[in-house]
Amino acid sequence: MFTFAPTPGRDKTELYRELCSSALALTAGEPDAVANMANLSALIWTFVADLNWAGFYRVLPHAPGELVLGPFIGKPACIRIAFGSGVCGTAAASGTTQCVTDVHLFPGHIACDAASRSELVVPVLRHGAVIAVIDLDSPLPARFDADDAAGIEALAEAIAARI
Ligand code: SME
Fold first, then answer.
1. What is the arithmetic mean of pLDDT over 127-153?
2. Ligand 1 test: best mutation among 78, 83, 118, most atoms within 8 Å of CB?
């Protein structure tokens, strides 16, 4: 049984530090990317409050220029997203984090769950190329700030070799 959980009362910096070390411990020695992304989605869900969706979209060799749905927690979601489309496609095309305080104001936002109000999408880079994005949705407006973005960016860097 795994018992990874955030220490109560930690500030965000500590919380994301714990998330990263838990992610490395949870994926240590496991070569299967899907298994690791499934567990990482559950870990994010456990550590980060007020989410309605948390998971991965992947860049696959047989589908250049688009993201393909990977392991996640939340409602069923759109399966393929073109680079440049929506929040995820914008993160993938630009290779930069997208922290969206109000998804209704993001041009081309793709609504997979009508409850989503804010969103954080962080690209996962390996050897300078985007291999996936980590997508977090919240039903709360402006749920994510620069500390959340920095925390998930640190996670993306930590697990890039394990997915
Ligand atoms: N909202 C995303 C689509 C993915 S779902 O949120 C799971 C977007 O605009 O790219």
1. 98
2. 78
